[in-house]
């Protein structure tokens, strides 16, 4: 169904485009594909994320990981480790510490959660058994 040339698309809200560019391009290393007055389009690890400018809510509840977050599941452990080093080197704040979930089970995986300036949560993970990715 999905060809390797196809791209997953996700649109998310942001409150400040300059902050979004700094976080996604300047810190995470994503490629800025397009910029308009009301949105930016990013190459987010091979997929497309569009950050749409919205007004900051007057009183926002603190974000929780569930039910809404997005990210990348790395097939290779080395790619996950490279991201961990990038986060450390650039001092990117984490939402929660890197952890191992479902330890000792087939679905065991490492996970890292970041929070962007608009409180969107990004989860990055790597499964020991690649068959557990889906």
UniProtKB/TrEMBL annotation:
Matches recorded under PROSITE patterns: VOC
Species annotation: Parafrankia irregularis
Every VOC domain range: 6-127
Matches recorded under Gene3D superfamilies: 2,3-Dihydroxybiphenyl 1,2-Dioxygenase, domain 1 (3.10.180.10)
Protein name: VOC domain-containing protein
Pfam families per UniProt: Glyoxalase
Top-level taxonomic group: Bacteria
SUPFAM superfamilies attached to this UniProt entry: Glyoxalase/Bleomycin resistance protein/Dihydroxybiphenyl dioxygenase
Listed InterPro entries: Glyas_Bleomycin-R_OHBP_Dase (IPR029068), Glyas_Fos-R_dOase_dom (IPR004360), VOC_core (IPR037523)
């Amino acid at each position: 169904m999905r060809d390797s040339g196809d791209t997953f698309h996700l649109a998310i809200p942001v409150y400040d485009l300059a902050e979004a560019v700094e976080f996604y391009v300047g810190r995470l290393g994503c490629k800025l594909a397009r910029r308009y007055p009301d949105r930016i389009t990013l190459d987010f690890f091979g997929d497309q994320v569009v950050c749409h400018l919205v007004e900051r809510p007057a009183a926002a509840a603190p974000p929780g990981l569930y039910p809404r977050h997005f990210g990348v599941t790395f097939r290779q452990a080395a790619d996950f480790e490279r991201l961990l080093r990038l986060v450390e080197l650039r001092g990117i704040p984490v939402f929660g510490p890197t952890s191992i979930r479902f330890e000792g089970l087939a679905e065991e995986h490492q996970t890292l959660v970041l929070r962007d300036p608009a409180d969107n949560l990004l989860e990055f993970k790597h499964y020991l058994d690649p068959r557990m990715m889906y």
